[in-house]
Design a protein that fits this description.
The chain contains twelve helices and eight strands. It is of the alpha/beta class and 250 residues long. The chain has a single domain, classed as TIM Barrel (Alpha-Beta Barrel), CATH 3.20.20.70. The protein has an eight-stranded parallel β-barrel with strand order 1-2-3-4-5-6-7-8, surrounded by six helices. Helix 3 links the parallel strand 3 and strand 4. The protein is globular and about 45 Å long. The chain binds 2-phosphoglycolic acid (PGA). The site of 2-phosphoglycolic acid has 13 residues, from strand 8.
Length: 250
């Protein structure tokens, strides 16, 4: 497979600056020379601290969200310009916690995707179905619509800076992981959708991460699947003891 494995840690709303610095230092040390692509995404207030530690290493710096506008009267929001100013290279958009707890919808996410790409950030676009949608046989349809709408008017050259993360909502933070077969089936479907929207080359090249209770004991079986190119890791990314074994799977 020509696609490089991409392992990302989403720290969510955890850690103080001192704790973030400690973890970032451990990761820099322990992932030195490791072969996959890596990212950490700390909370906004921690980014500058972590930026100083991961700069020039093999760990990219990410943010977990951003505003749909460049600047202006948007109380409580953080802009793409501010993220770039402190060294952010990647932004996670459309995470299920944003979609379901903070009611972010596809057209808003699409606006953010465009703004991030315009400013040269890599985007990790998250998609995934709820348990009731899976049980109703709608998993593919839900992911397809999140992709079609989230990527609306994104050009083929811009797509090269987009990573998709398939995160079934029922698997996030629950300890329940999709089986490698079920995850791979959705990944294959997503690839088909990208092929239809763009080209077979785009479908072949796009990185599709799996997320939802990825741990050191299930990462290998998931990554062995043809269409799974990496992981977006929440809970297990909060300690080097749990993240490094995932990051260094072989
Ligand atoms: P989890 O979170 O690994 O804790 O399930 C994954 C995510 O939300 O990105």
């Amino acid at each position: 497979m020509s696609r490089q494995y991409y392992i990302a840690g989403n720290w969510k709303m955890h850690k103080t600056r001192a704790e973030a610095a400690a973890l970032a230092n451990e990761l820099v040390e322990q992932l030195k020379g490791a072969s996959h692509k890596y990212l950490v995404a700390p909370s906004f207030t921690l980014i500058e601290t972590v930026a100083g530690i991961v700069k020039g290493t093999n760990i990219r710096l990410g943010a977990q969200n951003m505003a749909p506008e460049e600047q202006g009267a948007h109380t409580g929001e953080v802009s793409v310009l501010q993220l770039k100013d402190i060294g952010v290279e990647t932004v996670i958009l459309g995470h299920s916690e944003r979609r379901h707890n903070y009611l972010e919808y596809d057209s808003l996410i699409n606006k953010k995707v465009h703004l991030a790409l315009k400013h040269g950030l890599e985007v990790i676009l998250c998609v995934g179905e709820l348990l009731e949608e899976r049980e109703a046989g709608q998993a593919e349809k839900v992911c397809e619509s999140q992709i079609v709408n989230g990527l609306e008017d994104v050009s083929a050259p811009e797509l090269a800076n987009v990573v998709i993360a398939y995160e079934p909502v029922w698997a996030i933070g629950t300890g329940k992981t999709a089986t490698p077969e079920d995850a791979d089936a959705i990944h294959a479907y997503i690839r088909k959708v990208i092929g239809r929207l763009y080209s077979s080359t785009a479908a072949e090249n796009i990185i599709i991460q799996y997320g939802g209770s990825v741990k050191s004991d299930n990462v290998k079986a998931l990554m062995a699947k043809e269409n799974i190119d990496g992981a977006l890791v929440g809970g297990a990314s909060l300690k080097s003891e749990t993240f490094v074994p995932i990051a260094k799977f072989s």
